[in-house]
Write a structure and sequence with these properties.
Number of strands: 21
Oligomer: single chain
Shape: globular
Largest sheet: 12 strands, antiparallel
Strand content: 25-35%
Distance between the termini: 89 Å
Number of domains: 2
Length: 489
């Protein structure tokens, strides 16, 4: 059994929230950078577009030599390869969706009195403006193949898109908007192999999905804009399955760590969306990515701060909004959505608390070193129980905390060059901080700095490691203050 479909909706298991959330992230990836604020054709940032997951014809991509592979898709290439690990039953079926944008040239033409047509950059009819601009059409090819078949041989599927053209009359016969698409030729190759899980786990399978632009290359001297007409843009892959469980490559089970390291991901990287789905995107993501539930819609910037972009969009002048609407229909949709947002929706964009879980008692305990060691550095509870203004650290056999007097002794190796000018000066500790690797750093203010109080108020400190400080007793501190900035009597 196998099935291939072009430009159809991807299948999502009913009630599978994780897969649905992953598809929402995939849609954001598809239009990442498509059109950026202020959403106008005249904006410099909208003159160089399509920055991720671009698969051009091979000869054009390699005009200056082979493309250097990497896990990020920010470099134009002619191929994209995903390798991921999964556990599977004998009857397992794999579904792969290859998604991308196909360039579509929107050309405005003026109708002349003699019946001729003249291409123009813009056409104004009444209060409406029409602009020539490059749009894009979303494309998706779906492949469904039993895993057993992929273990026997590779499976090749055409995932390209045909040429197309449409014409729309505008301005009561004043002109035309002609949209044209050049053909895009591409193929996706699927293959699977069995890998041993060792004594600690059952056998797993490595699935490879490789998509290549197989179309003829335009002359290697043509511009990037011309090459994009035959390219796949924002290319990414959604992988699902029945009877499968995907394994994380970021944090793999111990039994499969070696196999995870051996996976070759080129110009893209796969992350989990639950156990049954993987998104392999040209933008580096973490496992289980989600679109913030407060977000009312895509603003074409995956790391966007919705509140700021929404407010800035509202401040565009009427003329700027008119140009944005004429630039692209998606820009017009953004303006319509932003202008109609209820006040309570805008308020939700200001921020949200994601977790109010109680702190476990063992984390609140003063003896917290062992529990914290087991908490990953990126976890929100990594800092639970820490208090920079009350914590202390031993320097030699002297506890040093906020308020302690110290003399600065910057290390000769590994110290900031600027710290050398502070050697021998006295300071006051403001806080004790822990970094993600478990290291300790002390924030200090200089005793002889006229702006010490102001810097403390702003939170601007010098930072030193414990071995770079010499604790001072009350007597030593007074002596240092009397003797000058170097602490000598």
């Amino acid at each position: 059994m196998e099935r291939t479909a072009q430009r159809g909706p991807a299948s999502v298991a009913p009630g599978d929230d994780a897969v649905g959330q992953l598809r929402a992230v995939a849609d954001a990836v598809l239009y990442e950078g498509y059109l950026l604020y202020p959403y106008r054709r005249s904006s410099p940032k909208n003159r160089v577009r399509w920055q991720f997951g671009v698969l051009t014809p091979r000869e054009w991509a390699e005009r200056d030599g082979p493309v250097t592979p990497g896990v990020s898709g920010s470099v134009d290439s002619w191929y994209q390869q995903t390798e991921c690990l999964l556990l599977a039953s004998p009857e397992a079926v794999v579904r792969v969706g290859v998604r991308y944008l196909q360039l579509q040239r929107k050309q405005v033409e003026r109708l002349e009195p003699d019946g001729g047509r003249r291409p123009v950059e813009s056409l104004r009819t009444g209060d409406t403006v029409h602009l020539t601009f490059d749009e894009a059409v979303p494309c998706e090819a779906l492949v469904e193949v039993p895993l057993a078949r992929l273990l026997e041989a590779e499976h090749r599927t055409a995932v390209g898109s045909p040429a197309g053209e449409s014409t729309e009359a505008v301005g009561d016969g004043a002109g035309l908007v002609v949209r044209r698409r050049d053909p895009v030729e591409a193929v996706t190759v699927l293959r699977a192999e069995r890998v041993e899980g060792g004594a600690a786990g059952p056998p797993a399978y490595r699935l490879r999905v490789r998509t290549e632009n197989t179309g003829p290359s335009p002359a290697t001297t043509v511009s990037r804009a011309q090459a994009l007409r035959h390219s796949l843009m924002a290319t990414h892959t959604l992988i699902e399955g029945d009877g499968v469980e995907f394994l994380s490559l970021i944090d793999p089970p111990e039994a499969y760590e070696r196999h995870a390291r051996e996976c070759r991901n080129l110009h893209t990287f796969p992350v989990l969306g639950g156990a049954r789905a993987v998104l392999s995107a040209p933008i580096i993501l973490s496992d289980h990515p989600q679109v913030a539930p407060e977000s009312p819609g895509d603003l074409h910037d995956a790391a966007e701060i919705d509140e700021i972009l929404t407010l800035r969009t509202l401040l565009l002048t009427d003329e700027e909004k008119r140009e944005a609407r004429a630039t692209d229909q998606r820009a017009a949709d953004i303006l319509d959505r932003v202008e109609s947002l209820p006040r309570e929706v805008v308020s939700r964009l200001h921020g949200a608390i994601r977790s109010l879980d109680p702190v476990p008692s063992e984390v609140r305990s003063p003896a917290r070193a062992a529990p914290r060691a087991s908490v990953p550095w990126w976890h929100e509870r990594r800092t639970d129980g820490l208090s920079p203004t009350t914590d202390s650290v031993l320097v030699g056999d002297v506890p040093v905390a906020a308020g302690s007097a110290v003399r600065l002794r910057p290390a000769g190796r590994g110290a900031d060059a600027q710290d050398m000018f502070l050697a021998g000066r006295t300071a006051r500790v403001a806080a004790v901080f822990q970094d993600v690797d478990g290291g300790t750093h002390l924030a200090v203010t200089l005793d002889d700095d006229p702006a010490a109080e102001l810097n403390s108020w702003y939170g601007r400190y010098f930072y030193f490691r414990p071995h770079e400080l010499q604790p001072l007793t009350a007597t030593a501190t007074a002596t240092a203050a009397e003797g000058g900035c170097d602490g000598r009597p």
